[in-house]
Amino acid sequence: MGQQAIHALAVGSIYALLMAGFGLMARLRRALPLGYASVYTGGGYLAWWSVRTTASLWSALGGVAGGAILLGLALAVRRLPARGGTPLASLLIGIGTLACVEEASRLLVGPYHMKVVAFASYRVFSLGPLLLSEVHWLVFGITFGVLTTAEGLLKSTKGRRWLAAALADEAGSGAGWPGLRRRLLLYGASLALGGLAGVLASCYFNDVHPAMGTAVTPRLLVLACLGALTSLQHACLLAAGLAATEHLLLPVLPWRLPADTVVLAAAVSVAMLRPWPGIPGVGQRG
Amino acid sequence: MERLMVTVGTHLVLALSVSLLGGYARQVSLGQAAFAMVGAWAVAHVGPEGGLAFARAGLLGLAVAAGLGLLLGLSLRYWSPYAFPILTLSAAVLLQHGLRPGSAVARFLGAPPSAEAEIRSLAELWPLVVVVGLCLGADRWFRRSRYGRTLWHGNTSSLANSACVIRATRVALVVSLAMAALAGALGAHYGVLRQPADFGLETSLWALAMAAWGGMGSLGRTVGGALLLSGLVVLVPAMASYRLLLSGGILLIAGWWHTCREQSPHGQRPFAFGPVCWRGWSLSCGASHEATGRRRP
Questions:
Q1: Which of A56, A175, B101, B207 has the most Cβ atoms closer than 10 angstroms to its Cβ?
Q2: Quick one: closest CA in A to B257, which residue?
Q3: B255: which chain A residues are within 8 Å (Cβ-Cβ)?
Q4: Over 60: is that where the pLDDT of B278 sits?
Q5: Residue B285 — very low, low, confident or very high, per pLDDT cuts 50/70/90?
């Protein structure tokens, strides 16, 4: 059970990282970015490719940073205002992006599951009765570092003001270099979080495949329904809760239910009881 | 030729169901194919031999899908553009797990027969003609009904309007899912949709792409888009392998196009890949409000 808890914590860390980036993108775009999981897939494949060619994970992390800056620049310099499209258009663009990335991965790399061997030899450390490998430390360390840094920035007065200005800027599509720089930073940060989650997931699960993005999208939507978009703390707690439900609660139940079934049943239940907090467009006509 | 007609007809009905929901209720359904699976199961277990048995099975599938739509629609207490994508995706996953081979439901119902209907003459295409006609009629009825008009011209400036919009959205969902079940029944009867994989996310996205290509909310354009794309995939078998890529590309273009458009004269943004949708709506209805003497709402 303890070992399962470690596994659940690692998976929850990846979900939290992904949800942090998803929430930031949702605030920037004022819509749920359904295509965000394609960044997760891209990060996974980047890790696979860099481990395969350079045998080093650092190049994958560098690639994620570089890719996030380039994509962030493309999103930041576009002339369309963030509110130009309806939620329906944003949904279609997101779904289209996810489908195209999945198919492109399938056509370029192949439809099979690929192994990602991040470390030549997996050393195992014992922490009392628990066993942790290098991959566990990698996931915990990076996630903890990134999320605590983000939370610290958000808690500071200057950071809060800067973020509010940047989001207001985005809504009005502020011109000039300061506006562009703010947008670039925010988009880059959001994309980097998703890509990083993909890198960590591929290393942790030792697996990358074209349908990674579509497999994780229902979980992102469930977390969004449950209120993970309201704050970073909520995102982390709910992500940990979801991972615990999947990996600690479900295996002990007498009937064998796939994790997808349960998480989506949760989404339906929540939808019937309350409006979804923090999600843009709720209660409004599209 | 008969096989082409059946495939195109099945996809057309699926596209119409998506177009109704997307064009009027402004909601995207990500699990339309799973509701088609309900109709397919009904046909496979109740009416595999065709004839009146198909009619019974089609009605059963329609009733079950409409009931599920009613249940999902009742959960929609607060309007959100993300409600139906999440709810339909959830329902689709639950349905697929519930009806997969080896599940309790599948064991209870028994394995469906795998033989497909052999089309020996054009007369055996009567289920196709009846279902397509029924769906076109249902689509036209909805557009001209108060629910369709409410959704087309609705806004949330007052609470009363919001409640009307939610009620009309529920009706649109029920009609849409019933049409999807009929498409599944048709597909199962003629063997176009047979395997559980035929009712997955890929088929749902394909239906969405067909509706978006033609123009959601426009009957004529949806029909044209569905005929063009499904005919292309049938006539060029190599395209079938790239259906998901094609769907993704079409959805990207349609979403970007919609973002770039101007608002319609009625103040509501039309959703069509082609010309202005309100004109297509009045053309597809066959008569404007002025011609029928009805007052514009």
A1: B207
A2: A89
A3: 85, 89-94, 96
A4: no
A5: very low
Provide the token pair at B100. Answer: 């997969």
The rounded distance, in Å, linking the Cα atoms of A256 and B97 is 11
Neighbouring residues of B78: CB distance < 8 A, sequence distance ≥ 6: A274, A275, A276, A282, A283
The reported pLDDT for the residue numbered A78 is 65
Cross-chain residue pair B244–A99, CB shorter than 8 Å: yes
Among A119-128, B181-190, B204-213, the least confident range:
A119-128
A73 CB-contact burial (10 Å; exposed 0-12 / middle 13-18 / buried 19+): middle
B76, A273 in Cβ contact below 8 A? no
What whole-number distance in Å separates Cα of residue B79 and Cα of residue B223?
29
Q: Counting beta carbons within 10 angstroms of the beta carbon of residue A230, is it exposed (0 to 12), middle (13 to 18) or buried (19 or more)?
A: middle
Nearest to B89 among A103, A264, A282 (CB): A264
Count of residues making up chain A: 286
Cα separation, A209 vs A45, whole angstroms: 8
Could you tell me the pTM of the whole model?
A: 0.81
Q: Report CB contact under 8 Å: A271, B76.
A: yes
| Calpha distance B258→A246 (Å, rounded) | 38
Measured in angstroms, the CA of A51 and the nearest CA of chain B are apart by: 28
Please say whether the beta carbons of A16 and A147 come within 8 A. yes
| Per-residue pLDDT tens over the stretch B203-244 | 888 998 888 887 777 788 888 888 888 888 888 888 888 888
A127 beta partners: A130
φ/ψ (deg, to 5) at A130: -95, 150
Mean pLDDT throughout B75-95?
75
Q: Where does the pLDDT of residue A41 fall: very low under 50, low under 70, confident under 90, or very high at 90 and above?
A: very high
On chain B, the residues whose CB falls within 8 A of the CB of A110 are none
| Kind plus residue range of the DSSP H or E element containing A24 | helix A2-29
A-B interface: how many C-beta pairs under 8 angstroms? 157
Place of tokens 């055996």: B124
Which chain A positions have a beta carbon within 8 Å of B154's beta carbon? 285
Residue A117 three-state SS: coil
Task: Give chain B's end-to-end CA distance (angstroms, integer).
Answer: 45
CA–CA distance, B61 with B40 (Å, rounded to integer): 8
Q: Which residues of B273-282 are buried (b: 16+ CB within 10 A; e: fewer)?
A: bbeebbbbbe
* Under 8 Å between Cβ of B176 and B20: yes
CA distance B179 to B132: 9
ipTM of the complex model:
0.80
